[in-house]
Amino acid sequence: MSLQDPSVKFNLLDSCHEEFNHKVPNSLLHKINSLDDVYNYYLTSVDVRTPLEALKTRDLPPNLHILYDYHRFADDSSKFDGVTAYPQNNNVVTGLKMKKKYKGFDAPQPKPEYEDELKL
């Protein structure tokens, strides 16, 4: 069966979305032109891992090492006497998982040299 009629294609894919709780992304809609295409799409396994997570299961060459649990250079690091790798830049932590692990901070901003002259 051909899916050339846009309304038929929409209704079919919408029904599949409701049934399988997985919809066809916009970038692949042009490849779905028949029922066989729909069938093959929903038979394809979905890998939701990030590329870094996918590397954990691969056999890497012996000269390649990846640090999955890296050490973060933070502003409050006692190892470097409070010196930061990013002076005058705020550290914004996004994502719920990372906010639990790391805290962000507002970097102190230097006062302008001419500020003392303005107070006179």
Describe the structure.
With 120 residues, the chain is mainly α. It has a domain at 6-43. It contains 5 helices and no strands. The radius of gyration is 26 Å and the shape is elongated.
Gyration radius (Cα, Å) is 26 Å
Pairing-aware structural class of the strands and helices?
mainly alpha
Average pLDDT metric: 81
How many distinct helices?
5
Largest sheet: none
Order of helices and strands: HHHHH
Q: What would a concise description of this structure say?
A:
The chain has 120 residues and is an all-alpha fold. It has helices spanning 6-20, 35-43, 51-55, 96-101, 115-118. It is found in: Mitochondrion.
Detail the topology: elements first, then pairings:
Elements: H1 6-20, H2 35-43, H3 51-55, H4 96-101, H5 115-118
